[in-house]
Amino acid sequence: MAGPTLQPVDVFTGKQFDAQFLKLGPMATVPVITDSDGPGGKSLTLFESDAIPLYLAEKTGKLLPKEVAAKYEAIEWMMVQMTTLGPMFGQHAHFMRFAPKGNDYSQSRYTTQVHRVLEVMDQRLSQKSWLGGAEYGIADIASFPWARNIPALLGAPAAEKYKNVMRWAGVIDQGRAVKKALATVDDVRAKTTQFDKA
User: Fold this and answer.
1) Beta partners for residue 34, in sequence order
2) Is residue 60 a contact partner of residue 133, using CB atoms and an 8 Å limit?
3) What domain range includes position 159?
4) CA nearest 121: which of 129, 131, 112, 109?
5) Distance of alpha carbon 128 from the chain centroid
6) In terms of domains, do 95 and 147 share one?
7) Domain check: are 131 and 74 in the same one?
8) Is 55 among the domain residues?
């Protein structure tokens, strides 16, 4: 059986708006996956970065508890990433890096919201090893990419302040699969427009 095929989409040059890509992901966002062995043996295409791991967890029976209460505890922390961590960090990065001057209110608002969600996550991770509960799972996978960039996006003082988040991110960062994925990200970035050069 062939492994997955990766097709980079350079969002800094607008490739996400190509007609062919919009047929797969109508919101013009990445990632998008196509599973040729979807339900009933049929091909299934999914967009949205939180729908994808939910689907894969359900399909494989991994990274999401089967017991109902534990399952929904993991899902609610995945929703924190989807509704707060990701959007607030994304807006923070936009207004700090790309927006024209004169957006002090916006910068302040999104920076405040980022710190608020990190305070909640730090408290959670002072009591639990993993965001989603007793085991590593989809809530951790979804939240890690933002959290690992705290020093770059918020500075060293924030990394010092959110010790539990940084400890948790450090543990995830050492995983073999994570190292492989980040090496792939570095390879793709080297071939496309980079965030710092956009």
Assistant:
1) 45
2) no
3) 68-177
4) 131
5) 20
6) yes
7) yes
8) no
**Same domain membership, residue 25 and residue 120:** no
Tell me the torsion sign for CA atoms 47, 169, 120, 75: positive
Kindly state the greatest CA–CA separation across the chain. Answer: 54
Task: Please tell me the predicted confidence (pLDDT) of residue 109.
Answer: 96
CA 18 to chain centre: 23
* 3 and 88 fall within a common domain: no
Residue 33 sits in the same domain as residue 110: no
What is the tens place of the pLDDT at every residue in 90-121? 999 999 988 999 999 999 999 999 999 999 99
Indicate the number of domains in the chain.
2
What confidence score (pLDDT) does residue 179 get? Answer: 93
Using 50, 70 and 90 to split pLDDT, how confident is the model at 11? Answer: confident
How much is the average pLDDT of 122-143? 97
146 in a structural domain = yes
In a domain, residue 7? The reply is yes
Question: Per the domain annotation, does 53 fall within a domain?
Answer: no
Within 8 A by CB and 6+ apart from 168, the residues are 125, 129, 130, 131, 140, 147
> Quick one: pLDDT at residue 3?
64
Listed residue (9, 73, 2, 3) closest to 47, CA to CA: 9
Q: What is the CATH number for 140? A: 1.20.1050.10
CB 96 within 8 A of CB 159: no
The pLDDT score that the predictor gives to residue 2 is: 57
Model confidence pLDDT, tens digit, residues 45-76: 999 999 999 999 999 999 999 999 999 999 99
